[in-house]
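Sample A.
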Amino acid sequence: MAITAELVKTLRERTGAGMMECKKALTETNGDIDAAIEYLRKRGMAAAAKRAGRSTSEGIVGILVNADRTSGTLAEVNCETDFVARTDEFKALVDEITAAIAATDQSHESLVASDGPLGQRLTAAIATVGENMAVARSARVSADYIGSYSHMGGKIGVLVQIDGVSGEARQHEAFTSFVNELAMHVAAASPQYTNRAEVPAEAVEKEKDIYRAQMAESGKPANVVEKIIEGKLGAFYEQIVLVDQPTIRDPKVKVAQALEAVSKAIGQPLTIRGFARFKVGEAGA
């Protein structure tokens, strides 16, 4: 019997399995839809598809940094329960997925497509464990030096990008300590931007409009109001901009000041290029 595209589509709609799996199942069963469904079920594919709609709010953020710490990868892999997330099997799966994402320029969506090797790996894991699983997001970053931090057993994963360090300075205690604390800081403080230049102009103007409305009945001259508004913006930046935030070690010292201090200590001017921070469940929130 000829295996038409319409027949493959019908099987996919009924099982949620990948196109190639459906085509193979229909070929093996001579186009018999019911037999093809049974074929897929026996291989766990239809069972995995039935779980595809179930919520995946638990999981782990996988972290991988290369040997010379110049590139790093984050991958959030979700499952249904914290019990599964804490198993060695799931952790191994997360490591495998993170490594695969790190090794290619392809998006995680294409890597875990149902017909791809990681998609088949996920399908098999879903069938074995009995829970839905998904790769929610991934990030690849690069810099002269990448710092990393995993919090709460992988519930939060952080990568920080530092430029300007080279040679023996990479091993300097002041530098390694700063990078470790910076990654911990990002995990705890959850900044949205690295520096003020990254903050969208419309977001700044929106804050200014709020402050102007608050000062509308103050009776103060416009130039005084604008100076007050500029002062208020400082507190706004402290909430969302990494270099403006007080450090977790000493609230009296901002990240920018700590960066300047470590630059002097190692004799090399450092800059924070950026960061990546994933918290399990945020992508679907």
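Sample B.
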Amino acid sequence: MLEGIAGPPDYLALAAPFTGDRHRDLMLSYRNVGQCGMMVSDRSRGRVRGRPGVPLIRYDLCREDVATVHAALVRLAELLAAAGATAIYLPLARMPELPDADPGPLRTLRLRRGDLKLMAFHPLGTARAHADPALGVVDGDLRLHRAENVHVADGSAVPSALGVDPQITIMALATRLAFHRRGEPCPS
């Protein structure tokens, strides 16, 4: 899913593929910059290892997800060019800019996962809900398996990426849990 975003300047500052004077100039023209994002239902998986207090988090994009991100970037570039963009800045190490808003070079780029500079919002599934403790961290009532009075009421309980903004789903889960903990039926 492609969407326009109205992120604060710090989102652009983090995502901008430049440093120094180019970065400063881009930030000074913030009011003339349109930002877009994409939501991808990924197939890639990560893992957390390490020891208590020193986690090692690993997440590597699989080829299919790199291809999906590439297709989304091409579509976004085409959309922005059609809307009159004069330059397009990309989260890519080897191609940080399409100076004339021409998506042609992006279409033919053989994208590698190491080229991508991505940010993620609303991470999901790190404490996924599932009735079977072997397949999930919390049960259907968002209670931690094999623990009393420990509940998860955020996006980590959502089993996998939704492909859309999960804000309403997260709010619904938290509301349902709150009513459940109070012993009241959740309004429909």
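B remarks: The beta strands are 2-5, 35-38, 46-51, 54-59, 88-89, 97-98. The longest strand covers residues 46-51.
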